[in-house]
Amino acid sequence: MRENLIGAEMIAFAAACDAAATLDELNGIWRRRLVDAGFNFVALGVHADPLRPERTAYVFQNYPEEWVAHFSAQRYHLVDPVFRAAEAGAEEFVWTDPDFLQPLSWRQRRILNEAREFGLRHGRTHRLASILPFRASASLVTSEPDMPEEAYAAGKLINVIVHHRAAQLCIAAAPRFEELRRRERQCLELCAHGLVDADIARGLGLSVATVRRHIERARVRLGASTRIQAVARAIASGQIKPIA
Fold first, then answer.
1. Percentage of the chain surpassing pLDDT 90?
2. Looking at the 3D structure of the chain, how many domains does it have?
3. Each residue's pLDDT tens digit, 7-39
4. Within this chain, do residues 122 and 201 fall inside the same structural domain, yes or no?
5. Measured between alpha carbons, how far is 33 from 37 in angstroms, rounded to an integer?
6. pLDDT average, residue stretch 139-166
7. pLDDT tens per residue across span 74-106
8. What is the CA radius of gyration of the chain?
């Protein structure tokens, strides 16, 4: 009987998420559900500056405002140990697990220590499907380490449901870019993987001048101001493969 009730509650929750028309609305549904479930702090979304996510991405969280401001100002998202562990392939991990802590750098350990001062102590993180070109994960944080496993399982399912809907909303809001030509895609993709113009030219059997011309045309088609921005937009629009 209880299992059926849980199933019915989750179906109703998923329906409410599907009906959410904006990220703000979805954020409110998600936050209320997890706080009611007993989690003190929660975070969900792409690995980015929480105060300045890209237009085609999202970050939901209810972490202390002072910590979020400090995290953003220090650009901790670039080295955050939780983000890096998820990106390295960890499907799910606890922040106090020795296997998670052992490989951390001194700076990453400092980030964790600072987070604890704001009440972010007993966290559990699980990886989520990427929103190209962004990696994503979710964290559930409690004040005590004895949250029942069933609560974590339910929280994880809630995060997966919300992330799926958030990704749909992000994709719908993404700008539409002009389609690249074959050579433009090839040159831009090789550029994305760190090859210089001479290497790209050698690999494709073109002159360096031709490679530069293809990349410049790709930049113009994508409305980008730099090569880096052109690569990001080409990945976001699915025209070239994301960087592994």
1. 73
2. 2
3. 778 889 999 999 999 999 999 999 999 999 999
4. no
5. 6
6. 94
7. 999 999 999 999 999 999 999 999 999 999 999
8. 21
Write down which residue in 145, 173, 201 finishes a domain. 173
**128 phi, psi to nearest 5 deg:** -125, 165
Are 161 and 187 in the same domain? no
Relative orientation angle of helices 182-192 and 227-236, to the nearest 10 degrees: 110
Sheet-wide strand order for 92-94: 59-61, 41-46, 134-142, 122-131, 92-94
Q: What is the CATH number of the domain that holds 48?
A: 3.30.450.80
Domain limits at 204?
A: 182-236
Listed as own residue / partner, the contacts of 46-54 with beta carbons closer than 8 Å and 24 or more positions apart are 46/131, 46/134, 46/135, 46/136, 47/77, 47/80, 47/83, 47/86, 47/87, 47/134, 47/135, 47/136, 47/137, 48/77, 48/134, 49/75, 49/77, 50/77, 54/134
Pairwise CA distance, residues 118 & 62, whole Å: 12
Question: By mean pLDDT, which of 2-11, 60-69, 203-212 is the weakest?
Answer: 2-11
**pTM for the full model?**
0.73
Alpha-carbon span 234 to 185, nearest angstrom? 8
**Statement to judge: residues 52 and 92 lie in one domain:** yes
